[in-house]
Design goal:
388 residues; mainly alpha; 3 domains; two-stranded antiparallel sheet; 22 helices; Orphan protein
Length: 388
């Protein structure tokens, strides 16, 4: 273990990597006796592999029963630093990866990052571009900004709406989003649906977006919700951010760190940097899968962030799908959707090619049951068992 801990000293670390390494060492000192009891067989020679191996040892080989209560805090801090270091090192790969390597990496990490769900979310939001925001049901409006709720019926929303990031913590943004959809639509429409988005397109969007907050005397407009809107509009051109991702992308790409108000920094330091990379410029899809990656190549740099076996399992879609039916009530009351939303969702479900006529004839009955709180899957499954 001592040789493993000191191995990075001989590695060519960047300033941010060395800072992460020193932080890891600091917390490791408080766990030294416990760490020395771990049998080490693998001693990687590069920093990314070192972080991955050390994280594995601390997560799987460390005897937690022997830890003192006060040692769990430094352990958690050390693991958090390791995951951040892994993310930054993996993002660093984006600077040199050609298109085949970019695609191969995403394919290898598909299960850990719930790639299937992510691509379904992207496809769903792309399909919404034929509607105006004022015409959308609440479920689609919240899906666009990354807010997953119990109203997102799993038969339609077979993905977590919060992949890539969420605007749900930005209360002021959400209030405006719900109250003034037409103004946000004006801003979003500044971004073309095809071709490369120009700086002029982006600045027009930013001006319209910032004006919504200024006109309501709500101070400076937040960048993070705007990146979610941009990335859902053009996932091949924009990256959806969170506060944590700003720091990790800045480290991994070696660009200046910007903040949640810096729209110029987002464009200059992140978007233009990504556009300079080989995988971005030389994307040559060879099949349908690669085309789906190319259509979302910017937003999918999220797949280069750290993920473990729990990441995909924490999907809000899976939590809702696997939730016991008796738990779908709160204080004895079912969550009721608007009739308009229910009708739209039921019609989407009934549009499936394999839907039998007897279910189509029961459309109004299905709407009524779903409006009372049952899921579409529950109602259709029940009717299939009775009439099928």
């Amino acid at each position: 273990m001592r040789k493993l801990l000191t191995a990075p000293v001989k590695m060519p670390l960047t300033d941010s990597e060395n800072q992460n390494y020193q932080t890891i060492l600091k917390h490791a000192q408080e766990l030294s006796l416990n760490l020395m009891a771990i049998k080490v067989e693998n001693r990687p020679e590069d920093f990314l592999s070192w972080c991955e191996e050390f994280y594995r040892l601390c997560s799987q080989e460390l005897n937690l029963e022997l830890l003192e209560p006060t040692q769990f805090t430094p352990l958690k801090k050390m693991q958090d630093t390791l995951t951040n270091a892994i993310s930054a090192a993996q993002i660093k790969m984006l600077r040199v990866a050609p298109w085949p390597v970019f695609v191969s990496y995403i394919k290898d990490k598909a299960d850990l990052h719930a790639l299937d769900e992510r691509l379904k979310l992207v496809a769903h939001c792309k399909a919404l571009q034929t509607q105006s925001l004022s015409e959308m049901i609440d479920e689609d409006l919240t899906a666009l900004i990354g807010k997953h709720t119990a109203k997102h019926d799993t038969s339609i929303y077979d993905f977590d709406c919060e992949w890539f990031g969420s605007a749900k913590t930005s209360k002021v943004f959400i209030q405006l989003w719900q109250a003034q959809p037409s103004q946000f639509e004006t801003a979003i429409n500044c971004i073309p649906l095809e071709g490369e988005v120009s700086h002029a397109d982006y600045t027009n969007f930013v001006s319209a977006y910032q004006a919504i907050f200024a006109e309501n005397d709500l101070g400076a407009a937040p960048l993070i919700p705007a990146t979610r809107l941009l990335a859902m509009r053009r996932p091949d051109q924009f990256v959806a951010l969170t506060n944590a991702k700003i720091d990790l992308f800045s480290q991994g790409l070696s660009v200046a760190k910007f903040n949640n108000k810096d729209f110029d920094g987002y464009w200059r330091d992140l978007i233009l940097t990504i556009r300079s990379f080989a995988w971005y410029k030389q994307a040559l899809p060879a099949d349908e899968f690669e085309q789906s990656i190319a259509d979302a190549k910017a937003i999918l740099i999220d797949v280069f962030l750290f993920a473990d076996e729990q990441t995909a399992k924490n999907s809000n879609y899976l939590k809702l799908k696997n939730k016991p039916s008796k738990s779908s009530t709160t204080s004895g009351k079912r969550s009721r959707r608007s009739r308009e939303s229910v009708q739209v969702l039921v019609d989407k479900a009934l549009a499936a090619d394999d839907m039998p006529q007897y279910l189509l004839d029961k459309r109004d009955s299905i709407v009524a049951e779903v409006q009372n709180g049952k899921s579409i899957d529950q109602v259709i499954s029940l009717l299939r068992s009775i009439f099928g």
